[in-house]
Amino acid sequence: MKALQLSVHTGDPTIGEATEEARAAPASRGASAQSPAPVPLTTMDVVSRIVKNYLLPNAMVVTFAVVVNLAVGGLGSAVPVLVKELMEQVFDAKNAEFLPLISMAIIGLQGMVALGTYGSNVAMSFLGQWMVADVQRSLFGKIVESDLAWVQKTHSGRFISTFMTDVIRLRDATSQSIINLTRHLAKLIGLIAVMFYLDWIMATIATVIIPVAALFLRNLGKRTRKATGLSLEETGSLSTLISETLHGVRVVKAYGQERNEIDRASVTIERVLGHMMESIRAKAMASPITEALTGFGIAGVLYYSGSQVISGAMTSGEFTGFFTALMLAYQPLKALANQQVVLQEGVAAAERVFPQLDVEAKIVDGTDSKELKVSDGAISLDRVSFHYDDGTKALDNVTIDVPAGQTVALVGPSGAGKSTILNLVPRFYDVSEGTVSIDGQDLKSVTLASLRNASALVTQEPFLFDDTIRANIAYGSPDASQEEIEAAAQNAAAHDFILQLTHGYDTHVGEAGLKLSGGQRQRIAIARAMLKNAPILLLDEATSALDTASELQVQKALQTLMQGRTTLVIAHRLSTIMHADNIYVIDHGRVIEQGRHADLIAEGGVYAELSRSQFDRKEEPTPALAGE
Ligand code: ATP
After folding, report:
1. How far apart are CA 610 and CA 161, in angstroms?
2. In the listed set 297, 327, 357, which residue is the last one of a domain according to the structure?
3. In this predicted model, what pLDDT tens digit does every residue of 196-248 receive, in sequence order?
4. 387 and 267 in one domain?
5. Which of 1, 8, 17, 19 is the pocket-test mutation for ligand 1 (most atoms within 8 Å of CB)?
6. Which domain range does residue 393 map to?
């Protein structure tokens, strides 16, 4: 019974129009993934930020990984020299003493390479996981500390995909880049040096393909970045879709939309697959390009070295050593050929992750913010106007006074601006114009912690965490004793039903409290507010969806909660606020009437009309929600 079907026109079309538009937006399924677009970043921006934020704080580990990787690469490049000696001493000179020596040298070398590879892999994994943990910690901090407006603008699925997918791409790109640019690069440089040491002409023939390969590989990075960006975007949409479908699974079933939802998911999955394949194709081209070009290098070297061996200008040891170096250079060359592609995948992920980490909260404590001192708890909204980020003007020049200890009710049709008013008091949003104050202190001048500590909010659809009833009641009061928790539950008319549950206060309430009924959830939320014992109570009164018995219990609990507190309540049923100290009728973001129930009825205006329409429906009488 949410809709109080009032239609009072205020004469300001902009308020009504924008409002309707904004309300229509969420209904559009196509607009479900309303998430900020990735912000283009240069490769240099990304690299320098990764170095500064994630590598420098782990300078010791990075240094260890780099040194070990360089050593592993360097040691790996010594193998051809050993092979050359083996050929010359054993095969050509038949030097038997040399055989065990060289075997031992190879065992020692490989042992060191293996040990170093292990050490550097562990160090690299630590760096990668540290980076993931750091980004996830920061992002989680942003979600809970940033402005509500930003969090609401971004779909939960988008956050989840950043947590689970984007950040992993970033990690992989970072660790792979470090391995490429240390271990593989060192090995390649070492092997090229060995080649030049053995024969500079053959070395020149062999390495001439490197700049040619680089030329071919240049564009692959760009293609991969674009495809990776698109695939991450679609993966985000998929997470959005999954989260939305899970939340709305009952609606999906009730409206027989299973097939449509499956089709929608299939389309997104297909798109993810398409972009992934595009990225994989671009990535997969790097190796064949390198391999094909290396074929030219090998053929050139073979042709030249073969003719040198035939003419006697080259020993078989030199030939074999050189050839070993050439073949060993293959793997690091392929890895480095992939580097641009790997890096650009990371940049695509960073373009999604970093902007979220860079969001700055606007509603924060100022340097001169003071503690809010609540003496009486009087709330005052003075000529307040407010519009949401998308331009929807929700409040226009609203003045409301809630004197200390009194109950003031907000009444009006759906979309009138009642919840917006309530949200301004704990500063979930800041006013666009005018001031909101408590006991004469402008809310913008007090610390957020002291402000939020002074008020308790009970929402229309109370949110419970997937935890025990005890933890849910004590949320916000973690030091509360069992006696205090039980006293709060008793006052909230929840104690009896809690004791009837199998595990009493230790019963887990399930995801979002779904194992409890609506009325039970409400009473747990009321107990939570009761335990907080704040002087100001913000109440989005929601008893209309409950059956009469539950409603009576919730009303009773609310009445107890309101005693001795300044209460601003959104009333959906007029019967519950008949005895409020003052009632404000809101429509299209403006106060159109105010007064006590009897005065407003006598005035014969909108409230009187509303009252008639509600009471004519012969509702079950409900206890009143106010002091008397
Ligand atoms: P109800 O009784 O249905 O809860 P209400 O009177 O509490 O309605 P509000 O939720 O305050 O109304 O909404 C006032 C106007 O602001 C509406 O037009 C609504 O569409 C718009 N609005 C609410 N929240 C947002 C938001 N986050 N972003 C943009 N517009 C919003």
Report:
1. 46
2. 357
3. 988 888 888 888 887 887 777 777 778 888 888 888 888 888 888 888 888 77
4. no
5. 19
6. 375-454+535-621
